[in-house]
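Hello,

I think I submitted the zinc ion job twice by accident. Can you confirm which output corresponds to this input? Input:
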Amino acid sequence: MATAQKAFSHTHLERRIRISTLLEFDTAWRIGSGKEGETMSDLGVVLDPQGQPVLPGSSLKGKLRSTCETFADGLGMTACLLNSEVSTVKCVSDVNYYKRQADKYQSAVEKGVESQLSWIDENTCDVCKLFGSPVLA
Ligand SMILES: [Zn+2]
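Support: Only one job matched these inputs. Its output is below.
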C-alpha cells in the first residue's frame, strides 16, 4: 500500500507511465464533436487536421476513470464520484465539500506549500489523485 500511496503524491512526480496499445473496435464507434455538418453524417465527429476521425486521449482517459471508479472499492481505492454525499468519500473534487473545507484549506496554505500539499493529499480520493481533479487543476 505504501508504494501505491507514493505514486499518488502531489509533492513531486514519482513516476510516469506510458501506455502504448493498438485499439481494435468490435463495433462501430464515433466520438461526437457536438457540431453538425462536418461529415456526411448529421452527427458531428471529432476529426484530425487531415479530416480523419480521431479518438482523443481525454475520451480514453474518461473511460478509464469511470471504469476505475466502478472497480475502486474492490481494488482498495477510494472514489468520490465527484459527489462526496453520494459516495460518502470526502474529496476536494466535490465542489460542495471543497467549499465547506475552504477555511481549513486556507489555513494550510498560510502554513506553507508543504502544508498545502499535505492537506490536498489528505482530502483527495485515490481516483482523483490518479486521474486529476477539476478543483486541483
Ligand atoms: Zn475524488
